[in-house]
Amino acid sequence: MSTASLAAADLAAQLAQRCDGRVSGGAGDLTVDVRAERWVQALAVARDELGLGFFDWLSAVDDLEAGLWVVCHLAAVRSGSPGAGGQLGGHLLVRTIVAREGASLATATSVFAGAAWHERETWEMFGIEFVGHPNLVPLLLADGFDGWPLRKDFQLQARLQRPWPGGKESAVRQVPR
Amino acid sequence: MSTADLPLPTVWPALQAPPGPVGPSAGPIQVWLDLDRRYHLSVFSLGLACCAVEFVALSTVGLSTAERAPDEGGAVAEVLVVAGTVTDKMAPLVRGIYDSLAQPRYVISFGACSDSGGPYWDSYSVTKGVDQVVPVDVYVPGCPPRPDALLHGIAMLRDKIASAGVP
């Protein structure tokens, strides 16, 4: 059976089973949640055994008191299809969650070398240290920048002087009591 | 890069003033310095975001219609048009480019972002206006401004230079 012919749902179920994770709805895309200590193993299994060899991106989501989700998008690339680079087959999100205080996670660069830049940016924006990363230095922010700007508790200096003048989107607007 | 010549400064009334002794009352000297304020503006675009496209639109159409051959011996003033979003990371480089321009030099801030930060006014990484880094002579508002607004800004700068006294 070719791995590329597996439906994404099968891929997710297999990955969850092999890495002691669980399949969740996530943000609409098929998502597999694994424990932090199984993170690197899950990515290796996805690449080597499930054919999810295309590392798309890695980032994080601040879930407040629950912690910080680290999210990685992987896809299978079918070869031999029209077009130069093949075509995307199944794809899914792999997630794990780390604590806000002293947030750290093993680096994925041993599985996907291309994760290095993504982890640098995620470290810079969310303050998640990727243990074993070869070059965890600031990438985008100005020298001497203090804080983790994409954490939800980060205080925007400009808004201290002038509060946000607009309204919230209707989907998140609070119902008046 | 395009050039546009300046109108003659209107300095004749000062010339007709009674000649005084050369010294602290620097009227005549100012006249001659002002006469030299006829620059050919050499406009350089620092395109940092989408506003740069508006500069390109003008440079292919508008500036060429305003372009005239420089007079012999005419001095050149360099004009830096900052078009787009300046970030704190980019700001030192903008300053470096400004410092590398020959005197006399002028700066036009083109668009809301380089004027004030624009829609990114509360961002953690966007500089709240390029005037925090370099002195700005003309601000062109808009998001983005139309290309003819840039032409208007250049004309305004030209008039400002021509009418300015010696500092």
Largest interface: A-B, 13 and 11 residues
Largest sheet of chain B, if any? Answer: 4 strands, parallel
SSE string of chain B, helices as H and strands as E? HHEHHEHEHEH
C-alpha geometry of chain B: globular
Report the CATH architecture of chain A.
2-Layer Sandwich
CATH fold group of chain A: Beta Polymerase, domain 2
**Total tally of structural domains of chain B:** 1
CATH architecture designation of chain B: 3-Layer(aba) Sandwich
- CATH C-level class of chain A is Alpha Beta
- Helix percent band of chain A: 10-25%
* SS field, number of helical segments of chain A: 4
| Number of H- or I-type helical stretches of chain B | 7
Question: In which order are the strands of the major sheet of chain B placed?
Answer: 1-2-3-4
> What's the CATH class label of chain B?
Alpha Beta
CATH homologous superfamily designation of chain A: NADH:ubiquinone oxidoreductase Nqo5 subunit
- Overall 3D geometry of chain A? globular
Secondary-structure element pattern of chain A, one letter each: HEEHEEEEHEH
Describe it:
The complex is a heterodimer of chains A (177) and B (167). In chain A, 21% of the residues lie in helices and 25% in strands. Chain A has 177 residues and is of the alpha/beta class. Chain A has one domain: Beta Polymerase, domain 2, CATH 3.30.460. In chain A, strands 1-2-5-4-3 form a five-stranded mixed beta sheet. A two-stranded parallel ribbon of chain A has the order 6-7. The longest helix of chain A is centred in the C-terminal third of the chain and has 12 residues, at 115-126. Chain B has 167 residues and is α/β, with parallel strands linked by helices. Chain B has a single domain, classed as Rossmann fold (3-Layer(aba) Sandwich). Helices cover 36% and strands 16% of the residues of chain B. Chain B has seven helices and four strands, in the order ααβααβαβαβα. A four-stranded parallel beta sheet of chain B has the order 1-2-3-4. Classes of the chains: A alpha/beta (177), B alpha/beta (167). Chains A and B meet through helix 4 of A and loops of B.
